[in-house]
Amino acid sequence: MKAIKYLYGAACVAILLSSCSKDSFDDISFVNTAQAPDKISAMFDITQDNTGLVTIIPNGEGVVAYDVYFGDTNTAPARVAAGASIQHTYAEGLYDVKLVGYNATGKTTEATQKLTVSFKAPEDVEVTAAIDAGNNFKVNVSAKANYETLFKVYFGDVADEVPQSFLEGETVSHVYASVGTYTVKVVALSGGVATTESTTTVTIVDPVLLPLTFESTTLVYNISNFDGGATTIVANPKSGGINTSTKVGKMVKGAGQPWGGSVLKLSENIDFSVNKIFRMKVYSPRVGAKVLLKVENAADGSISHEKEVATTKANEWEDLAFDYSGVATDKVYNNVVLIFDNGTMGDGSANFTWLFDDIRLTNNLPSTALTLPVTFDDPAFSYQTIDFGNNATEDADDPTNAGNKVKKTTKANGAETWAGTTIGTANGFASAIPFTASATKMSIRVYSPAAGIPIRLKVESHSDGTKSVETETNTTLANAWETLVFDFSNNVSGTPALNLSTAYDKASIFFDFGQSGNGKVFYWDDVKFVSGAASSVNPPLDFESGTLNYAFTDFDGGAVSIIANPQANGINTSGKVGKMVKGTGQPWGGSYLTLDNVLDFSTKKTFKMKVFSPRVGAKVLLKVENKTDGSISFEKEVSTTKANEWEILTFDYSAIDASKSYQKIILIFDLGTVGDGSANYTWLFDDITPN
């Protein structure tokens, strides 16, 4: 057929040249510029009957015919059309068969190929069968031997297989359909009846590597379940949102142990040299489900690293991030361990069934736009910042509480007077800050190296920086946390005023504004919008607000509630007061209130509080304490001097260490005595005021 095709093509050219000569189509330069034939070779097939009859099958590209020079005493070439073959009888020996390929214009290309004709069985057969570097399912086979004319290979994966022929020096390939171990048989042929065979086995595996997408139709995932965890690979039953893949992992946590989970064994070690963020898509039945992702050494489980994050969505795919920046990169990890709700026993229900997918190692945390409040505590979120003017901001631990994540900004030596830090990306927050006529404030907790340092906060439209507002306040504490409130209705002189019709969706903070950098270090946290519904829970505490949450925490028999003043007379006619009932429990039973701001003892070192006591001589202890470290505290105790009458008690705090951070107020009445919940152990209190 190929010969007919080429002859037909040549005839068409002749017709065009003869019949169209009167037209303008007389340019035949394309014929003269045709490429010479290429890739000239031949396949030899010898009959195994000691006759020496060899079939020669020429091959090439751009060839319409061949001249075959047999290389023996017959020196005259034989003309063979493209796609055809020719037979020739040889005596035993080694021959150089020359092929000359012709294209349609007569251009030629030559090639010479050695032919061995022997009536002995081939000897010293050596076969090479290697898995292809680019395809785990592909094997490449080559062979060499003495006295052979050609080889035939059987790849061993189908019944009644037709072998593939090849010559010494050639490589033939085959792609297997599935994993497994196969026997590759190579038969070496000569001109004699006898043949020589060689077999070798190849094992086709599909290595389990990161990323784990569960999409492969051939991959065998090596999963080991333990203590109630049960993982299977299933068709995605919740295709949608960020995950429309075909297959996913499914974890059902049943009865067993609180740590029940599964191990996914990888085929090679995890490389943490560059990427140190694990990402995994999870479909959870509920918000707040804990997800632990652990890596460990397959031979030594004590070599491991783990991170746990919590789901933030229910019945919806989300992309969780596990920060492995602290992993020891000199260790070997090749197992991935998944535990859902570590610490809780599963029951195998839908409430303990999770889907997971696309476990991959990257260097990127999620880049979703920030929303207020910004706490820096969510490990699955990328709290990006943008420094300018030679500021330097980084993630850090709270200097007073290592479990709390904060930002640390260094105003380096020589930094600009206006050096600052944008909170988030250049695109700002996910939505505009909801300023109104009665709600114009934001707050930020700041840990400053000194009191009296100006901190400026600027908000603007991310799409138009000329639409902005700047306000400023000073720190009041040194080396202690305090909550600074920024009121944008009080803009800095010379800067634009607040315009409630503008969508302010970007904020930047400026530490020690107006001063060149000298290496001062600031920690900051909890960027919030202050609602106009109320101010904040801070002294003076008069309990009159209808919107503030005076969230007292009772302990060991103490019980505080905010009530309408049942004794509105004398020095206290206010509408609401606090009520403490001391019941059975411990002698130290009481209650505490966590404030929104750190208490400022830089100038005011006396507390006053109105008390209505059932008896004279009742002891009243007022204590202040650090928000997270109870060892940082100060207390004073005084006794009532009146019964069934309001009086003002004074607590002298002049000896307090004002450099410490205090954010709790603790009240204990009659410390050392267990209450009984009666009227004799019921007190009213009000107007807790620093002076």
Outline the secondary-structure elements.
Blueprint: H1 2-19, H2 29-32, E1 38-46, E2 53-61, E3 65-69, E4 78-81, E5 86-89, E6 93-102, E7 108-117, E8 123-131, E9 138-146, E10 150-154, E11 164-166, E12 172-175, E13 180-189, E14 195-204, E15 222-226, E16 229-235, E17 247-253, E18 261-265, E19 277-283, E20 290-296, E21 304-310, E22 317-323, E23 335-340, E24 353-362, E25 385-388, E26 391-398, E27 401-411, E28 420-423, E29 441-447, E30 454-461, E31 464-474, E32 481-487, E33 506-511, E34 520-530, E35 552-555, E36 558-564, E37 576-582, E38 590-594, E39 606-612, E40 619-625, E41 633-639, E42 646-652, E43 664-669, E44 682-690
Antiparallel strand pairs: 1-2, 2-5, 3-4, 3-6, 6-7, 8-9, 9-12, 10-11, 10-13, 13-14, 15-18, 16-17, 17-24, 18-23, 19-22, 19-24, 20-21, 20-23, 25-28, 26-27, 27-34, 28-33, 29-32, 29-34, 30-31, 30-33, 35-38, 36-37, 37-44, 38-43, 39-42, 39-44, 40-41, 40-43
Write a structural description.
- With about 700 residues, the chain is mostly beta strands.
- The protein is about 5% helix and about 45% strand.
- It has 2 helices and 44 strands.
- The strands form 10 sheets. Strands 15-18-23-20-21 form a 5-stranded antiparallel β-sheet, with no helix packed on it.
- Strand 8 and strand 9 (about 140-145) form a beta hairpin.
- It is elongated and about 135 Å long.
- The relative contact order is 0.07.
